[in-house]
Each structure stands twice: as structure tokens, then as C-alpha cells.
Amino acid sequence: MQDRIIRCLFEPLGTGQPNGLSLLINGLGNTLLITFGAVLLGAFLGVGLAVMRSSEKRAWRIPAFLYIECVRGTPVLVQLFIINFVVFASVAVDKWTVAIIAFGINSAAYVSEIVRAGINAVAEGQMQAALSLGMTKAAAMRHIILPQAFKKILPALGNEFIVLIKETSVVGFIGGIDLMRAGDILRSKTYDAVVPLFTVAVIYLILTVALSQILQAVERKWSRR
Amino acid sequence: MIRIENLRKRFGNNDVLKGVNLHVRPKEAVCILGPSGSGKSTLLHCVNRLSEPTEGRIFVDGEEITAKNADLPALRRKLGMVFQHFNLFSNKTVLENLTLAPVLSGIMSPENAEEKALTLLERVGLKEKAAAYPHSLSGGQKQRVAIARALCMSPKAMLFDEPTSALDPEMVKEVLNVIRELADNGMTMMIVTHEMNFAREVADRIVFMDGGNVIEDATPAEFFSAPKTQRAKEFLGKIL
Fold it and tell me: ipTM of this predicted complex?
């Protein structure tokens, strides 16, 4: 077993080629890049959608509703393909941009529902008080409602982050070499399925467990205030 | 200062206000009494349009707040409001609760707002709580901060929506004292309350509501000693 691990991960895959571990680490970097990019884009779009969805005006509410339903009602892989092979079919953009946009758009729908639940959980009196002081709705949202909502939804947002780490593993379908794809390449090069796939699984596990620990620590710190 | 003309408010099939007319003059303290469900709080929430009137017109300081193109934030700044459940911003310190709105609306610089806020906090006896968060305050302290917060906008009139109803009995007095001081200094006020003794002492006028109508509008002396309507007699009989 030890021999297999050493051969698979630490010996060069051919003359002048990197070893398996550096292939995986490269893939890991791409996985993190896509995830962070998508989380940022998703959070940004998601807050906007949530505010639109909570609006009194139908012209705001309905587009947001349709967006959320369409994105949540179709597989992320279909969305990734549509972005890659339809939207950016004739535009030269790298795979990472495509992936960040696709996963960001996807995540935004889920984030917006989380944020909306958070907005609804903030007592109505907070908005009333802000309005009574002559604040605009937008200012009240920004300074009073969203900060309180954010605190309430941090666990759910963290969970979305973790889900996204795992979901990006389908990016290999459009030719992006992320952690999962790197593991699969390693499998085909070494004719060994066990070591690459389990290594990939363990790396994902370390990422998600570490992230959930960090989030729990942040939550504990915030709830003290 | 506040003129209400034929105000109606309907929630679904429920007529909460059925044509209220009321004129609050400058420096006048008007206490609004009545059984629960009579529309007192709704009336107050319509005055600064936190509730949208179904019909009727309301003028604040000569400007129609019910007009389609009314500048709501600007008009609301003229009306300080104090809520039953305080509604302090729980993500802000006491001081920030006071300074946030004046600074955001640009009517004061951060330095001036802070100076004014500290003066007001001193006036309600809570200067030492400036850096505290609302959750660490007692109900009475929260309500005093809420009053100071409304005053920080230098409003022309104050609306009190059952300011002591959510308080423990021993904290009612500290809040009423602050309101009394405002009345003594000539603040124009509409106060929805169940504190009869307070109303008798502070009010220039008592407005008694029942079933969405104003059914009596009298001086405290008249109202408490010789109510004109049967409904008001019954109400006072139950309470006093």
C-alpha cells in the first residue's frame, strides 16, 4: 500500500513531468479559486435578489422570483453547460471565469433565499423605527436590517459555502482541471483508482471540516455581542 | 401642527378608522385614550405614514404628508416616534442609535450629532450607557433611549405609541417623567396611553376613541369628571 501511495503521489508521472501530488495541489488551487469567486459573486447577487424579492413592487419581486425558481429548478451541470456552450460559445474567456460565473449565478439563488429568511427574521419594528427617523428604505436595509439578518444567517451561509466547494467538482465537464478532475487524470495515468480518488476525497473532507470549524468559531464570537 | 381630515383606514374588510378628524395645535399635548382595538395606534401610525391611510388627508407643519409626491423622509423627520416595544437598533450602540439617522440624512455632522446625542442622553439620565448595546439595558432605559433617539432629529412633534405598556410597573415612572418634562417644555405631542393619571396630569386635551371614531374631544378636567358619552363613562368606570 505504501508503495502504491508513493508511486502515485510522489514519483514523477513521466520524465520531466510533475508528481501526482503537485497535480492535485494545482487542482485544489483551482477548486478554491472557483469556490471563492463563486461565493463572492453569489453573495453579491444573492443579497440583491433577496432585497428585490422582499420589495413591495411587483416589477422588482417577479424577476427575482423567476430567477430563483429557474436556477433552483435546474441542475447546476445544465447551467454550467449553458453558460459555457451557449452564452460564452463565441467569446474567448477562460474556463475559470465561466465556472465562477456559472456557480456564482447558481449560488445566488440559494443565498438569496437564505438572506430573505434572515430579513424576515429581523423584527418589523426595526424597519418602522428607521423609517420613522426619516431614513430611506435603502438606508434602513443597509445599516439596520441586513447587518442583523447577516448575523442570523451566518450558519446557513457557511453551509452554502461548503456545498459550493463540493459542487464545483463538476467543472471538469467543461475542461477545467479542478481537484476532482486532477484526481481523475491521475487515476488514468497511474492505472490506480484507489489512491487518487481517496486522496481527493480526504482533501475535500479536510476543506469542509476546516471551514465549518472556522465558521463555528466566528459564530461563537459574534453571538457574544 | 398636525391636521387630520376624514382619515379612513381599512385592513381587508375591517374598518379600523372610520373618518377621523383631529387638529393638534403647536405646543399641545393630546392624549388618545380608548379601549384596545379602537384604532388609537393605527391613527398614530397613519400620521407619519408607517401605515398607509385608505382615505383622507394629513398635514404636518402645513405640508400634506398624504400627498402622492410628499417627501416622506423629510416629513417624518419632523415627527419623532416612540414605540411600545422601543425598537432600538440592536446592532448599534446607544450612542449610534441616536446619531445614525441625523448623520445619514445629512442634517448634522458626526461631531455635532454626537455632541447633541450625549446632551440628550444626559437629559434622560443615561449618559453612562452611551457605549452599551440595547440588549444590556432594562425596559425603562431602552424607552428613555428611544425618546432621546427621536429627539436627536429635533422633531417638531412627538408621537408616543403606548410608551409604557411593555414596561414592568416599577419602570413606568422614569419614562413618564421624561415625557412630562417634554410636555413642560412645550413639545407638541400625540400620546396613546393607558396611564389615566398621567393623561389627566399632562394632557392639554383628551381624545377618546371607540370603534374607529373619535367620540370625545375634551379637556382632561371635563373628560375625567363629566364624560359626555355613555361609552366613555363605561370605559372610565372599568379603569378607574
Answer: 0.92
Kind of pairing between the strands at B205-210 and B213-218: antiparallel
Q: Residue ranges of the alpha helices (H) in chain A?
A: 2-5, 20-53, 58-72, 76-81, 95-121, 124-132, 137-140, 146-167, 179-190, 194-223
Q: Find the domain containing A62 and state its range.
A: 2-223
Nearest CA in chain B to A149: B91
* Residue B186 burial (10 A CB sphere; 0-12, 13-18, 19+): exposed
CATH of the domain at A55: 1.10.3720.10
Number of domains in chain A: 1
Global confidence as pTM: 0.83
- Asked if A133 and B101 touch (Cβ cutoff 8 Å), the reply is yes
pLDDT > 80? residue A89: yes
**Considering only CB atoms, which chain B residues are within 8 Å of A126?**
87, 89-90
Residue B120's pLDDT is 95
pLDDT of residue B154: 93
Q: Tally A–B CB contacts below 8 A.
A: 64
> What residues of A are in contact with residue B100 (Cβ under 8 Å)?
133, 135, 143
Low-confidence ranges of chain B (pLDDT < 70): none
